[in-house]
Design a protein that fits this description.
Layout (H helix, E strand, L loop, with lengths): L6 H43 L3 H6 L5 H10 L11 H21 L12 E7 L12 E6 L5 H9 L16 E6 L3 E5 L10 H17 L3 E9 L6 H12 L4 E6 L6 H15 L5 E7 L8 H11 L6 H25 L1
Organism: Mucor velutinosus
Pfam families: MMR_HSR1
Family: Belongs to the TRAFAC class TrmE-Era-EngA-EngB-Septin-like GTPase superfamily. EngB GTPase family.
């Protein structure tokens, strides 16, 4: 015999089921969305991981201010291509504003800053040979053959520091007098050099001893080759300096060998490596010992750091005296002929 349920009972059950479904449905859709997001994130990260270092480097987009800074330092101009058309529009607007300001106020004169005569006074292969701590010091360190010695010569307008294309020429800590103002220190290179591992280890220990125990040391300039950027040895040295509470700043050399966009991207990558290090100066110095681009600005920053930056008129007078001396020399030579 068939049993029939009342219609009201069937209706109540249907309403209960519908309520249950309407309660569950949003969570089901949310779960689907989360799973989809996870899968897409995995795809994105896997796609990023598959990119080569060169592809990641090419994807960097430096700010327009960085291009303007490099152009001002003398590293060329941004070539007008389809790829950089947006940057050119920004630059054109800023150049127009700057020109209008210059027409009203006039261009600010920037003198050529100068160091006193550079002279060698001590060399040390062991810590006991370090000279007494008399003047403030700044040290230059970096991988072998990145251009530390050439940089010191360019900044000091000298040829006292020996240079070579062979890695590992500097095999001791060399101390130089910058007149009676301060000392500049040329340190051995770390990383590859034409010496055995034991000697490289000895250099490293010597440098760490100097860096950690020298009370007159004001700053360490870590010199990098702009073409190669930051290497593993550089990262290790950054971390060592940071752990020893030593203030350091990165200097990119041989910047004339890079086109402007690649140089700007290189600066961005270096800044990314040091941004988490408390004792790193975040402003990256860019120079070229060959063309002298950026050298005058670097010289000015060093003088300011050491507390010996004079008014602009002081350097203008020095330059005027040099020009007058050169003119007299040229005139005397022409008279003899």
């Amino acid at each position: 015999m068939l049993h029939y349920r009342p219609f009201t009972q069937i209706l109540k059950q249907a309403i209960a089921v519908d309520r249950h479904l309407t309660f569950i449905r949003p969570f089901a859709s949310l779960t689907t969305t989360i799973n989809h997001a996870k899968s897409s994130t995995k795809k994105d990260t896997s796609a990023t991981d598959t990119l080569s270092n060169r592809q990641k480097f090419n994807q960097i987009q430096p700010p327009i201010k960085l291009y303007e800074k490099l152009e001002k330092l003398g590293f060329g101009t941004l070539l007008k291509t389809k790829r950089y058309s947006g940057l050119h529009k920004q630059k054109a607007r800023r150049d127009q504003q700057r020109q209008q300001y210059t027409e009203r106020v006039g261009p600010p004169p920037e003198p050529k800053y100068a160091f006193p005569l550079l002279s060698f006074f001590a060399g040390a292969k062991v810590p006991t040979s370090f000279p007494p701590e008399s003047l403030d010091e700044i040290a230059f360190v970096g991988r072998s053959n990145v251009g530390k010695s050439s940089l010191i010569n360019s900044v000091a307008e000298s040829s006292v520091v020996r240079t070579s294309d062979k890695p590992g020429l500097t095999q001791q800590i060399n101390f130089y007098n910058v007149g009676t103002l301060f000392h500049m220190i040329d340190m051995p290179g770390y990383g590859f050099a034409f010496v055995d591992d034991a000697e490289r280890k000895q250099w490293r220990e010597l440098m760490e001893t100097y860096i950690t125990k020298r009370k007159t040391l004001k700053r360490v300039y870590v010199v990098l080759d702009a073409r190669h950027g930051v290497k593993v040895a550089d990262v290790d040295f950054f971390k060592m300096l940071n752990s020893k509470q030593v203030k350091f700043q990165v200097v990119l050399t041989k910047c004339d060998l890079l086109v402007l966009p690649n140089l700007a991207k290189r600066i961005v990558t270096v800044e990314d490596h040091i941004k988490q290090l408390r004792n790193a100066v975040k402003d990256v110095v860019v120079v070229s010992s060959k063309t002298d681009a950026g050298i005058n600005q670097f010289r000015k920053e060093m003088l300011f750091l050491m507390g010996h930056l004079q008014p602009k008129e002081f350097y203008q007078a020095i330059q005027a005296a040099k020009d007058e001396k050169e003119a007299r020399k040229t005139k005397s030579l022409s008279f003899k002929k």
